[in-house]
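Work through this protein:
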Amino acid sequence: MITPADLLTAWERGAALPVSDRAPSILAALDPACDPGQLTIGSCDALLYRLRRQLFGDALDAVGRCQQCAEQISVALSLADLQPELVAEPATVTVELAGFRLRASPLRNSDLRELATLGSTLQARDILRRCDPQVTDQDGNPVPADRLPDEVLDAALDLVADADPGSSVLLAISCGCGASWLEQLDIRTVFWDELSRWAAELLLEVHELAAGYGWSETDILALSPWRRAWYRQALAW
């Protein structure tokens, strides 16, 4: 069972990490057998969907803004309907196009960390380099991946993403003005933001109860949410 103290400690440690590592780090903190760096993007996201539902429930109210009329759009989601399938080991993909044969593997979380360091200079070829590309020409001779035409590069990256279910979850959104579009649901940002709000509220409860009763943080965190709320109300009597 995940205790409030365990989750609070995991959040505190994650907050000190680069943004790309924060949500995945919670998986490792709560399950020492999990190595997020070796998980594919889709596998990591599938586990984060599962953990988010376990901690905060299935329902999610997503908010966006219409790209045409700027109206704010609210969408009620069920994460059970969106949760990607957890695939143990996505297969490599093969592209045969324009006289080239390319084999590539899905990205891992450790790849995201390296790609994030490139910032605004990040290009599609940088992503392909992290996919362990193996390229040959029509005669089977090795070819540097940097020599690939853009059409082969784009096709390869599309197939790599398709081979890793859950690496991209798209929401179909429509507005009363008639506009419709697809928007990606970033479970990592959603989960981390919710966890941070939960941690801030819990720490405020600890502060108020410690100041009011002189209890230790350990004792306060051991209380149920209902009892913490009752004692906070009692402070105002």
Residues 187-213 form the longest helix (27 residues). The mean pLDDT is 91.
